């Protein structure tokens, strides 16, 4: 059982490019997570991610700035073609990265067997949210940290932490997956691709937008119109989980509105619940987002011990949020 | 921190002043500078992937012309054309000019501009995404775009920052004045 004695939580920040990695380190990230430019990571978008050389350079830069680098190799290896994922683990180990974030059993096994000194974090894509599942990964592969799915409330996280002896990391800001990660295939029904298999939710080659004469924006995924926004209305990502559907004559958001996560107000409770690390989502975002969000959450985490006021910095983050709106998501299950 | 770019649209007078300027010299200058940048930074072409040689239209809402950009290891081109003549483009990016500049220099986040509807995209979304991510990595300063380094680059960057800051402040004031006039009328 882990001690729940409060100590400063680690701020884990995203980087989709070397420039974003530098911005995150400069803004005060304790750790930066990134991925290689292929389908081994769940943000496999055009123009994004790192070559092996860029990764090694990025690790060296981050270490000079006092930040760790965590490499996400968190998609599920394709049957009969596991080498790409094994090579990614080898590349991460050679780069001097501080940990690999993985979900697939074969990837975890390769890392544990061939790189015993490489720290392993369990990706949110593994959807491990029970003590039994987490203990299995810890006992079998030596996993040191688990990234929890965004479906647990704070009391549930506190209860879970009392029953496990690995660190927990939770999302506190950014894009909000409303499904249990690793088990969502919605995108594949419209496009044939999904986050877990090819590293893309709503792959951009299947997305298109049109704006009509009245300024109404129509968002399509795989040829299906999945949302519309009136002129001047804040828009969201083209994901099915935040799309509008019509049933029995009523049209509305079925799973979730276009909205982003912001758990700033719960940082104190998360600390008391025994959480080790706070994760900011957004490897697909620009340097302005990285600098703004990481800087604000750096102030927020530090304020838990130094009593500073991060309110204005956190308040300014609304402009970065999908649909211009924010929620504490499942951490506060107000619908129960 | 981001301000709201829609309040940074250039006043119509700027568009009127820019409209009669000859396009060929500007095209030649922008094309040359872009070719030199690509030659210095081959990593950017690798990052672009399938978007190499794909024409993408950049359309500032508040200027009279569009920029048709085609990045290529050997022959990158920037063409300036009427907004009605961007039919060759495989993707189109529209936003106020200062917002587009802010995307280039990292002042603004592309997704946030999309959420606020300041930035609109049409055509092949994957091309826009690849270009956006490549420009993010380019970490482009005015000094670097002009091929400068050391003190001369620092000098150009400082002057550009100040100038751009003043233009943004002027655009915001102008937008607020317009807004007040509309409320009174």
TrEMBL record, chain A:
Its cofactor is [4Fe-4S] cluster. Keywords: 4Fe-4S, Iron, Iron-sulfur, Metal-binding, Ubiquinone biosynthesis. It comes from the Bacteria. GO terms for molecular function: 4 iron, 4 sulfur cluster binding; metal ion binding. GO terms for biological process: ubiquinone biosynthetic process. InterPro entries: Peptidase_U32, RNA/ubiquinone_mod_enzymes, UbiU. [4Fe-4S] cluster binds at residues 177, 184, 201, 241. Pathway: Cofactor biosynthesis; ubiquinone biosynthesis. PANTHER family: PEPTIDASE U32 FAMILY, UBIQUINONE BIOSYNTHESIS PROTEIN UBIU. Forms a heterodimer with UbiV. Required for O(2)-independent ubiquinone (coenzyme Q) biosynthesis. Together with UbiV, is essential for the C6-hydroxylation reaction in the oxygen-independent ubiquinone biosynthesis pathway. Belongs to the peptidase U32 family. UbiU subfamily. This is Ubiquinone biosynthesis protein UbiU. It comes from Roseibium aggregatum (strain ATCC 25650 / DSM 13394 / JCM 20685 / NBRC 16684 / NCIMB 2208 / IAM 12614 / B1) (Stappia aggregata).
